[in-house]
User: Fold this.
Amino acid sequence: MVAGTVSFGLMAVAIRLASAQLHAFEIAFFRAFFGLAFVLPLLLRHGPGLMRTRRLGFYVMRCAIGMVSMLAGFWAIVHLPLAQAVAISYSTPLFVTLGAVVFLGEVVRARRWTAVLIGFAGVLVIMRPGAASFSAGSLVALLAALASANAAISIKFLSRSEHPDAIVIWTTLLWVPMAALPAVLVWVTPTGITWLWIVLAGALGSGGHMLWTRALKLADASLLTPISFLQILVVGVFGWWLFDEAVDRWTCAGAAIIFAANIYIARRETRLARHAVTDREIGADIPTPP
Assistant:
């Protein structure tokens, strides 16, 4: 999880460096294009049978939502202070909780609703609507978080019948043509060191995604969620070093509030999942009456 989190943080830095020459939409295309090159070895490992699916339409819908998240997220990384853009992105789990109620029929009780409301209060602290320092660009970052939450919920549906590596390959494969159209509208052929930044964006993005999914297989979300906030530290340091960006107290305070809300939600979900498993195991030991 540490390696995946650092990879995502460095991807954000590579995106900002590439933005000196390229539009955020073109960077998104190259992230998908080079990301595909780095995930294709999964197909060699599993064989072409991995790509068989009856859910192609659902993949297309999931990838379209994910593309909105990517385009909006990359735009925010380019136009907002790095730490602020990343901090707002951590509202995604809050939207996932809301979506799980609406789309998955999950039951969320008072304490988790309270954590969600506190988390969104943290988002408002970062964005400061009505203040002189408010940036409309922060709404784009919030859109990216909302779209990312919807994409995460769609993955929950797909994971019921699809192999995790198949989801990664299909997603990246479909992102390439989807990202091509907005990229063509703002196309500038990369030159010089910009090629390094866009290749790194693809490698770090795909590598971080694979590390993240594997971490979630090895440990509970309640343990891993605190580690994921290391990304704010990574982009904060590089933002200060490379782009002379200071992390203001409002971003720190809002990020801390969102952090606390996400920790509570993750631990609560893990505790409930363990209780559900225990109840099933106890039920399995009770003999069925004749």
About this structure: Residues 2-285 form one domain. The chain has a mean pLDDT of 84. DSSP finds 13 helices and no strands in the chain.
